[in-house]
Every structure is written in structure tokens, then in C-alpha cells.
Specification:
Layout (H helix, E strand, L loop, with lengths): L3 E3 L5 H11 L4 H19 L5 E6 L3 H15 L3 E6 L8 H12 L4 E3 L13 E5 L11 H12 L4 E4 L22 E5 L12 H4 L1 E5 L5 H6 L4 E3 L2 H5 L16 E5 L6 H12 L5 E6 L4 H7 L4 E4 L17 E4 L7 H13 L3 E4 L2 H8 L12 E2 L3 H8 L5 H15 L2 E4 L5 E3 L5 E3 L12 H14 L4 H23 L6 H6 L1 H16 L1
Parallel strand pairs: 2-3, 2-5, 3-4, 5-6, 6-7, 7-8, 9-18, 10-11, 10-13, 11-12, 13-14, 14-15, 15-16
Antiparallel strand pairs: 1-9, 16-17, 17-18
Helix pairs in contact: 2-3, 3-4, 9-15, 12-13, 15-16, 16-18
Length: 510
């Protein structure tokens, strides 16, 4: 199975060094390779632009910029490099590539005053001032330059990472950061790209394969991963020829209350579309008829309470439990969850009000079975683990919380994060803003619960569920538009998602 790693920027030197020594390739040739694929991508996005201004620093990111300038110049385009390194010594490879550009007649202009600097009108600005190794806020002259760039109307494209943005973004950054419209990053995304607070700087980003050595990419340890179809589809269990409803699992969903009936329906639709052999719905008495009419495939058992969940008596035929969507936070429901967690040690996913009850009744956290899956949105996670200073701090809290309680935590967002008891984090790459609608999380609960019941391990169920949920949202947005996408549309597109994954797996096996 292929995992796509997100390495720390402090690992870059080792990855490059191994590639240089074992391919083998010179550092200059590796820089040429990276700048070449960047230039190809740049011209795909700006095929009609003829004026490019390269903003070059003194390090290897600046060296990339000089190579890009030379390649554009060779194509007959109008290219100008602005040197923003003053009296600083250039890195050896940067110096060589600056000389190569100058020797072929390229134009380099030294800039010493940010206020007097003016790029060419209608030019595309290529940011090559700082690379991924930056470990301090940018202030002073270069800070002034970055602020000047951000005030300009020009399109800005960053090489590898926007200047001023630290790859791990681990702490307060009071310095200046380039606000790029596009970032073309080398080999893998930087961790900072995954955080909502950095979207203003990164813009639209894409990964460029610069062919770092496959051995070092495979064997070098990583804590962070991003999800792709290959990595996810390979985890999906395919039912055997003689599978039947008894072998594909019985999912118990505990959902809904009198004032939130729809949550039960949406979670049920997510589950029924995700491969469970049987779906049992435990709902308050007042919801029985609604479930029968909305989800006729579901078996319905009613609670002793007319309006709320108060407890479940028989769990003997259940392979996985999903609880939380729309159940409310009444004292009787809190006691029902306490009783459930006191006896159930199997697979379980908790969402929504179940999480709010965990947060307000700390003793319940200690009752969670090992391997439980929690699916909070950021506010629900804050109630569980406390406020965070920034997104990186939240990521650390998330990882610590999952390790401490030996559970899997799915923090929902633009790049939903799955944190494991082993300290690993997986970032999802599917989904769109059209999914930011009430009920979308209820559908996810049903998906994950069904995957658990049908035989998937908790990590696999979380990863597959999150990826499939986002992909279903993407398919719904393609058809309905993001504004017109409803939570129910996500559930309805799940069949196409599973078909796509199954087809992908069959093609890989041929």
C-alpha cells in the first residue's frame, strides 16, 4: 500500500542529500530538474503571459528562481530578475545559476529600497526569495519587500513555498509572508498548507514530482500523510462471492431526538450506502414511523423514552455502534451513554451530541473503548481538549489527545485530519466548501459506522470514510454546484464513490 508522506522541512536536506549521493545526481542538476518542472507548470497556468519578474533571494530558492528565469528567457519570453539579496553571500548553486543567466544576456537588477522598487506592468511575479528552510520571521528590508508585493495587483506564483511561511508554522509568526495566488511545491505538500490560517498565503497549490530517490521517500520516517485514491482504495475490503448480510455486519446507529429527527435519517442514509449487511436504528419512540418511511432498509428498535435516547438493552448481534447525531444532551441521554460505554468494548464511532456529552462529563472519556473513533468539528474538539493558539497548536493537541486516550480522532475541516493512537496524522484531500452544511457530519458518522461493522479496522474505516465522504461531496458539487449541495446529496453519491474505488482496485490487480 502506498502512503503519501508529508515530511518536515528539517528533513529536506537529508532527502536531497540521499538523492544526490544515490541516484547519483549533482545538486545543480537536481535544482535544474526542480526548476524545469516548475517552469512547465507555470506556463500551463500562464500560457498567454509574456512578461515574468523573478524575485530572487540568496539561497537555493533564489537559485531555483535564476534557473526559471533562464528557461523562460530561452523560450523568448520577457524575463527580468530582481536581486533581493544585497550584500549577502549567495549559496554556491544560487551563484552558479545567477552567472549562467547573466552570461546568456539575462537582466538582473539589484534592489536596495523596497519603496522604490516597481515591477513591470502586467508581469507575473515569481517568488523565489525564501525557501522551505526558513526558521525565523521575516522583518526589515525583506519584510518591506514582501509587504510591497502583497500590495501590488500582480499575479504571484511561489516556488515551493511562499516566502516568509514556515513549513511547520510552529508558533506565532509576526513576520511578513508572501500572499501567493499559486504555489507549486516540490515532491510533497508542506504541513503549513493544511491549515486554514495559511490559505491566504498559499493560494491554489499543486505538487510537482522532482523525482527524489524512491528509496529515501519510502524508508525515511514521517508522522504526517496525505490521502490519495491509491492510498485509500487499497484499504477497502471487497466482499467475497459468498458474502451475505450476516457476514457484512450489523451496524447499530443511535441517533435522533424529537427536535432533531433529520440527523437520524441522514446518518442512516450514509450507513445504508456504505456496505453494511444490516442497519439497526435505535431511536426514540416518536421517530419510529419517520425512519420506516425515510430508510425502509433499516431495522428499527425504539427507546423506552418517547423523545430521547436513554439506553440500549441488547448489543449481542451488533458489530459496530455509531452514536451522537441529533441525540441531544439531556441528563437521561448522558446516563444512556454512560451505560452503553460501560458494557460495549467493540467498535464505535461517536459524533455530535455524544461528543458534547463527553466534554461535559469528563468521566465518560475514561469509559471509551480502545480504538474508538471520534469525529468532532473544531468547536467540539475545543470543548474536549481546550482552546488552541493556532492551527499547529491544535494539531499537537489533536495528536496528544488521540495518544492519551488510545483512540482515533477525526477533526473535520477543509483538510480533515485523522489522528491515531500511534501519533500519526492523515490529511484528507477530497471535499469542498459546499459540504459546509448542516447534516454533512451525520452522513459521515453513518459511513464510518458501516465500514466498522463490515470488517474494517478503525483506522481504515476512518480514512476510507473521510475520503469517500469528501469525494461524494465533490461529485454532488459537480452536479448541483457547491451552493446547491445538500447533506442528503452527499449520501446519494456514495454509490458512485464505492464503484469508483472498486473499479480502481480491480484495475490495479490486473
Amino acid at each position: 500500500m502506498k502512503n503519501n508522506k508529508i515530511f518536515k522541512t528539517s528533513d529536506l536536506r537529508e532527502l536531497d542529500k540521499y538523492t544526490i549521493e544515490n541516484e547519483p545526481v549533482t545538486s545543480l542538476d537536481l535544482m535544474e530538474r526542480a526548476a524545469s518542472v516548475f517552469t512547465e507548470k507555470l506556463l500551463i497556468f500562464f500560457p498567454h503571459s509574456h512578461i515574468f519578474n523573478i524575485l530572487a533571494g540568496s539561497g537555493n530558492n533564489g537559485g531555483d528562481g535564476y534557473v526559471v528565469a533562464r528557461l523562460l528567457f530561452q523560450k523568448g519570453l520577457n524575463v527580468k530578475v530582481f536581486d533581493f539579496h544585497g550584500d549577502n553571500n549567495l549559496s554556491p548553486d544560487c551563484a552558479v545559476n545567477r552567472k549562467r543567466f547573466m552570461d546568456m544576456g539575462g537582466c538582473c537588477i539589484e534592489v536596495k529600497n523596497a519603496d522604490n522598487w516597481q515591477p513591470d506592468e502586467n508581469s507575473v511575479l515569481v517568488d523565489a526569495i525564501f525557501g522551505a528552510g526558513l526558521n525565523r520571521p521575516v522583518t526589515g528590508f525583506l519584510g518591506d519587500v514582501i509587504h510591497r508585493v502583497n500590495d501590488l495587483p500582480h499575479s504571484v506564483v511561489a516556488i515551493d513555498i511562499p516566502s516568509g511561511l514556515m513549513g511547520e508554522n510552529n508558533g506565532e509568526n509576526n513576520g511578513a509572508i508572501i500572499k501567493a495566488d499559486y504555489t507549486f511545491t516540490f515532491q510533497f505538500p508542506k504541513l503549513a498548507f493544511m491549515f486554514p490560517e495559511n490559505v491566504l498565503y498559499v493560494g491554489h497549490w499543486e505538487i510537482l514530482d522532482i523525482r527524489l530517490h524512491p528509496v529515501i521517500l519510502r524508508e525515511y520516517p514521517a508522522t504526517y500523510y496525505y490521502l490519495t485514491e491509491d492510498a485509500v482504495a487499497s484499504r477497502l475490503l471487497i466482499p467475497g462471492k459468498f458474502s451475505h448480510k450476516g457476514t457484512l455486519g450489523n451496524t447499530l446507529l443511535i441517533a435522533g431526538s424529537y427536535s432533531m429527527m433529520g440527523a437520524a435519517v441522514l446518518s442512516a442514509k450514509g450507513a445504508i450506502r456504505s456496505g453494511t449487511g444490516l442497519l439497526s436504528m435505535h431511536v426514540p419512540r416518536k421517530l419510529k414511523e419517520m425512519i420506516h418511511l425515510s430508510v425502509p432498509e433499516a431495522l428499527v428498535e425504539v427507546d423506552r423514552n418517547e423523545f430521547y435516547f436513554s439506553g440500549v438493552d441488547d448489543l449481542s448481534r451488533v458489530q459496530a455502534v455509531g452514536i451522537g447525531p441529533g441525540i441531544g444532551t439531556s441528563p437521561v441521554t448522558a446516563e444512556g451513554i454512560r451505560q452503553l460505554l460501560s458494557v460495549w468494548r467493540g467498535k464505535i464511532v461517536l459524533d455530535a451530541d455524544a461528543l458534547n456529552l463527553l466534554a461535559s462529563n469528563p468521566g465518560l472519556l475514561e469509559l471509551l473503548p480502545e480504538g474508538a473513533v471520534l469525529t468532532p468539528h473544531p468547536k467540539e474538539f475545543e470543548r474536549l481538549a481546550g482552546k488552541s493558539v493556532n492551527d499547529f497548536d491544535r494539531l499537537n493537541k489533536l495528536s496528544t489527545f488521540a495518544r492519551l486516550h488510545r483512540i482515533y480522532v477525526v477533526l473535520k475541516g477543509a483538510h480533515t485530519i485523522i489522528a491515531t493512537p500511534e501519533g500519526e496524522c492523515y490529511f484528507n484531500m477530497t471535499g469542498n466548501p459546499g459540504m459546509a452544511k448542516g447534516g454533512a457530519g451525520d452522513v459521515l458518522t453513518g459511513i464510518v459506522a458501516a465500514l466498522l461493522a463490515s470488517g474494517h479496522a478503525p483506522l481504515d474505516a476512518a480514512i476510507i470514510g473521510v475520503y469517500a465522504h469528501g469525494l461524494a461531496g465533490d461529485l454532488a458539487a459537480e452536479e448541483q454546484g457547491m451552493r446547491g449541495t445538500r447533506a442528503g446529496d452527499i449520501a446519494e453519491k456514495l454509490g458512485l464513490v464505492w464503484k469508483k474505488m472498486e473499479t480502481y482496485n480491480m484495475a490495479k490487480q490486473r
